[in-house]
Every structure is written in structure tokens, then in C-alpha cells.
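Entry type: protein chain
Record version: 2
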Amino acid sequence: MSDTTGRKFALLPMLGHTKGKRSPVTCALKCDNACSGEVCNTSSNSYFRDIASATMSRRAALGFGAAGALAVVLGSAVTSAGTAVADGGTGLAAAAKDGFGKSKLQFTAIPSIAADVDKLTVPAGFTWQPVIRWGDPIFNTAPDFDLNNQTAAAQEQQFGYNNDYSDILEIPGSKGRRALLFANHEYTNESIMFPATMPAADVRKVGQAAHGLTVVELERKNKNQPWSYVKGAGLNRRYLNSTVYELTGPVAGSSLVKTKGDDAGRWIKGTLGNCSGGTTPWGTILSGEENFNGYFVSPGTSDYDKRYGLTNKPTARQWELDDPRFDTRNADYANEANRFGWIVEVDPFDPTSTPKKHSSLGRFKHEGANVIVAESGHVVAYSGDDERFDYLYKFVSKDKYREGDRKHNMTLLSAGNLYVAKFTGNSPAAEITGTGAVPSDGSFDGTGEWLALVENGVSKVTGMSVEEVLVYTRLAADKVGPTKMDRCEDVQPSLHTGKVYVACTNNSDRGKVGKEGATEINPRNANRDGHIVEITETGDQTSTKFTWNLLMVCGDPAQGDVTYFSGFPVDQVSPISCPDNLAFDSVGNLWISTDGAPSGIGRADGLFKVTLDGAERGKVEQFLAVPRDGETCGPIIHDDERTVFVSVQHPGEDGTFDAPNSYFPDYVPAGTTPARGQVRAPRPSVVQVFRTDA
């Protein structure tokens, strides 16, 4: 970024070399060109070489009772999804037997959409409208959005940029007419946000204000009507870089996180790189700090810096010019980067509450975290580290969930055990060829183990204290020998069955010279299109043993891709590439949003429904496609109301301010004056898709 304009980025090293991600702009701004350099994980472990072994039955009973089937708590109210115990005879979950096919959200799959179409495409019989857009004012004192005259003071009171994880929580007692929308704001693209004449210092300030989190109230006349956001509502809140977060767990007060601005090592300003997230059974929101490294200048020489992708080059946004804490070469702020990379928890029902960062869940590039209550009553949180050849993690709380005791439950993520996953396959290594071809036993499957990093308050990693394990979690995990994965993104446990689903988005480096080749859990070299892992814990969710299989190996069969959809005919599925975020509907179907299909199969990213049980297990049906250059994020499936919500992130990202690639969502015609609050430019937005006859 130059001194005179905030919208030019000097280097796009991924230009012409992107695979499995949308564009060099995404690479530069979202993950600091992670794929243009060396893989952060250079450990020599040759994990998971497909040693043939006896596989535990994939139909083993979960022993996962009603406590683990809790639905989301909205305020203090709890609804149960019923007891979910797998059927040992047929493999069909009891909940699926009772509810399969009964969803009100029936639709005809849309065709795959070309990547250059600037349109939100939805099924016949459905329509869409925004819930809230970048720049929409959420406080009474906030001005209307003015694209050409943006200020930091205005943006602090407006909806932020590049919304990713989102959820809608009904306000108790409102009879379905009031709710809270949560959204996080992952990163900014100054090149299409601001005119070239805008001073660079102002660009930096507005860009900072466009990060963070938002909570905003929604209202509607009845359950058959779409939602509208409420400007000036009492629960509306923006979480900014000035917002203070409390650090919890063993790292709180550690010398590893103390800085000049916080000599107690307990109070952190801001949250960065917030990607996916989760909603807890007690009604709070979790948000994952992912690509935080791109916001810091660091020495870049230590093993720690290299493992976390920290370098000494100027950052894309150059906040270090205004705030010394973003340059960790300053002795006073040497630990500032250690204060990011955590799971954040916020209480959307209390706008005066202090949000938390939970050190017990470890520090890495969290895609998000999703929680389930085990039969034992302990809370279990799953999280993926979104980097090539990094790992899958699980946290088990020390204390137990107490139904109705929200204050207690909000402490559960502060202490517990942390594990990392090791997978073993049951097919001969010679049958894993790197093409994605299914081995002779008819499926990709095997067993697994959760390897302890911290257990009962004690470090299980030789030579590292508990504090060091949690701050340098990647380095700690390297030492215990987990399985290198193809970018674990969203990890979702099903409240119907207890099975856990892991979206592995892609890994174009697998099988390259000097890098690990295909394994049964990651069966393709140069993995362009990604896959979905299905995990069944042996016993309840606190178990350290599990079995696994691949639900799908993604791609477009019509283009000749070798794919697998749990045995479902490949010519009867919607083509799908680069699975990212996951969600479930009320009857247990899995929904997948994608990120990277344009540079994978050449189609627009979208949202897909996948049947998990019965004769149609593995059937993929595309529900929607997002506009040009956009990514599908934060799916919310309210099938009982025949409504779906998605966050449309970075539409028109490859364009410029003066020549936009997209006009979503306002679609103001050329030569006309935009209506109040509208602009003729791309705006990341949360949208709702609903039936036209609802």
C-alpha cells in the first residue's frame, strides 16, 4: 500500500498460480499468500502410510445420549433433538429413520452455474433478499452508507466487511418475531472498497473499523415473512479493534502474552481474521481467529515465526504504520501476535458483556469451533487448522454442562483437555494411488486416535509446558505425530447422530517433491477439489478412539474428475468443489458451502444439500450459487420455515473500485441514481432465500 492510496497492493505472487482458491486477490488479502511460500509444517513425520489394520466396526454404538442431542439454547430455553444412538444393524440413525424426507425445504437442484455469472441463483419457487449489507447503519447515530465518502467513525457504526460465520438466534418470548443475527468480518479488500483519491491513512482506519464482529436485532411480522434488521435496537453491537477481550485458561497471565499495553497478560484489544464459528448449547457464539499472521510484521526468523507464517515483510494493510503493536519487532510488543489465533466467545444477548478468548482450545489458524455435549455431560469442541498439511483438534471440558445454568456453562471452555487427531487406513498402501480411485474394499475408511497435548492440566508434550503447548500448538502437535490433513476447515458434529464431519477444502501441494503424498484419509495428490471426512467416536464424544470414512471425494465427474460419493452414482450428483463451511437441517441432512470452485471446476461457488442416510446417502444437490467472485459462507438452514441464509463474501473481488466485477446485491442499473442506502458496487451481505409462496 503506497503513502497516497490505500487500494493498491504491491505483490500478488499467486497471480496465474492459484489452485483451489478463487484468485490471487483472495490469496493476498485473506491468507497472506500462504500457498506462495513454503508449507508451514515442515516436520518429517510420515503420518498415516496406510498400514493395513483391523478396522473397528463403523456401526459401533455411539453411547451418545440425550444430553448430546441438545439443540441450541436461545437465551435460557433448551430444546432437545432427541436421543441419538446409532443403529448397530443397518447403520441408519434412529433420528434419520423418524425424520428422513420430512423436511419442509423441498427443492429442485439448480444446474451448475458458470463462475462469471453475476447473479445469486436460487431454485425455482424461491426468491432472495438481503438481511444486511456492508455499510448498513446499525445504530441511530450512524449515517447512511456513502461509498465515496467513507469515514472510520461511520464504519464503526455500520455493518462490517466480508461477513463469514453467521447465525440467527430467536429472542426468547418473541413468538418467532424477533431474533439476533451474529456475523463476523474476516478481512477487507481496500482495492474495491475505496476510491483511489482516498488518503492512505484514512483507508487504513476505515479498513480496521470494517473488521471485527456484529450483532444486530432482526424482526418480522410472522414466521412466513422474511427478516429485516432493526436500526438502533438495544442489543445491536459492533466489536472493533478497540474492544477488549478477556483471555481465559492456562495462558492468561503468562509471560508469553504480556505486552506494554497489557502487563497483566489478560486483556487483548480486538480480534482478527475471524473465519467460521459455532453456536454453543448455551446460546453464545464462537468465532475462530484464522489468518491473523497477515496483520503482523515479525522478525520471521524463529521456528515459531516460520511455523505460523509470520514474516518481516510489510503487511498488505500496513496497520503497523499507525500502531506499533502490529510490528512485533518492537520489544514492547514482541508477544502481540501470540494474543491472536484463539477461539473467541461472545454473548450476543448482553451488549455490555466482555468477550473472551479461550486459550485452552489451543492457538493456530482456527477455521472455527463447534460444540456438542457428550453423554458424560462434558462439552466437546472440534476445530480444524486451515493450512496445508495441518491438523484436526478436539477439546474436552474439565467441568460438565448444567442444563439451565448459563453462567456456569459460559466457563466450560476455560479448562480441559486438548487433543490432535491421528488417522490410520485399512487398505493396502499400493491401492492408494493418488488419483482418488476407491480401494478394493469399496470405501476410504479406517480407525483413529486422539493424541493428548494437554490432559488433566499437564502437558503431554516432552519439553513443553502447558502454556507453551497452548501458545505454540502447531509446534507441540508436530512432536506427537498426528496426521497431516488437506486444510481442515469447518468441523461439525451432528446433533442427530453424534458423527463428526470435517471439510477438507483442498491441498494442491500434496504429492509434490519433498511433500507427503496421498494417504487413505487424503487420497489425492494435487488435491484440487477437496473431500469430506465422517468420524464416529468410539463411545461418547470424549473418547480417544474413533473410526472414520470419507463421505465424498469432490469434483465434477462430467469433466472426468475421479470422485466418490459414498457409492451414490456419480452421474446423479451436482458437481461440487472445495467444501468449506458445514451445517445441518432439522432432519439431519448435511449442507455444504464452497470456497474455490471457480478455480477448481470452473463453476460458481454455492450451497449444497447432502443426504447422509439411507439409499441416497452421498447424493449432492445444489441449492444456490453466489455471484461472480463470491464465496458462500455461514450457511443457516431453517428448513422448518423453508428458509436458508448465507453470507456472501467478497463478491466482485477481482474487480476494481472504478470497474466493478459485481453489483451484488443492489444491482443498481447503469446510468441511474441509487436509492437511499444503495450503491452500484459489490457489497458483502447476509442474504435470506425463501419460498415465494411462503
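Comment: The chain is about 10% helix and 25% strand.
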